[in-house]
């Protein structure tokens, strides 16, 4: 498999500036392959996207912190993600992908390395299988650590996933809003069903990210803004945002990260919504020690 670069080397400077302390809550690191080889089961073979490159982007865009999410190309070996967190001087935490038979000692090691959640990936193009029973075993193991679960799926399987989501004993964060069909508009079936899920389950949160993946219109993502702004306004305490740098599998539509940041004030139009989206909410999941006891989720 030839290696792919899925990010721009010199993204534009956003016109909008994130507030001090802002968290970019969905990024990945790739490799470096010489130090942290990719999984033999990886479905794509990216160029190295190193922690140093990530931190340069963070500073360029005006963010203070990152949440590094283990990408499928590294399988269940979280060393590249842990390396990124370790190099961040406390300015990154992470989400791991683990095997169901993982023991408490290994989970504690991940916790010490800054991991605060696990990810379950249901995208067939990314993983060979997604065993719900094994995922629930993992969810039960991580719950006592105060971690949460991140779930990545597409809208067509939401209905069949509901009992599984309901069985997870922690906060659940759905990546990219469960990938609704944005072309259906703000009252479309996909986003309406997703909002019903959030209405009925106060422990389900979502990342209002993925404009570059979900918008048929492309930049400046007017279609995404029209559909997603009502979600931010309706669930202000349960939304996170991330660039998704280095944009795995986006080699045919590589986004400009500066343009993505400029979507934020359009989906979260007030300073209060922006503070919740970029600071308060991610802190509850990733830096809870910074909050007073009664604010904890
Ligand atoms: O990271 C994302 O948002 C999306 C991905 C890649 C991914 O999740 C993974 O490799 O684990 C995708 O849709 O190809």
TrEMBL record:
<dbReference type="InterPro" id="IPR052358">
    <property type="entry name" value="Aro_Compnd_Degr_Hydrolases"/>
</dbReference>
<feature type="domain" description="Amidohydrolase-related">
    <location>
        <begin position="23"/>
        <end position="286"/>
    </location>
</feature>
<feature type="region of interest" description="Disordered">
    <location>
        <begin position="1"/>
        <end position="21"/>
    </location>
</feature>
<dbReference type="InterPro" id="IPR032466">
    <property type="entry name" value="Metal_Hydrolase"/>
</dbReference>
<dbReference type="GO" id="GO:0047554">
    <property type="term" value="F:2-pyrone-4,6-dicarboxylate lactonase activity"/>
</dbReference>
<protein>
    <recommendedName>
        <fullName>2-pyrone-4,6-dicarboxylate lactonase</fullName>
        <ecNumber>3.1.1.57</ecNumber>
    </recommendedName>
</protein>
<keyword id="KW-0378">Hydrolase</keyword>
<dbReference type="InterPro" id="IPR006680">
    <property type="entry name" value="Amidohydro-rel"/>
</dbReference>
<dbReference type="Pfam" id="PF04909">
    <property type="entry name" value="Amidohydro_2"/>
</dbReference>
<comment type="similarity">
    <text>Belongs to the metallo-dependent hydrolases superfamily. PDC hydrolase family.</text>
</comment>
<keyword id="KW-0058">Aromatic hydrocarbons catabolism</keyword>
<dbReference type="GO" id="GO:0019619">
    <property type="term" value="P:3,4-dihydroxybenzoate catabolic process"/>
</dbReference>
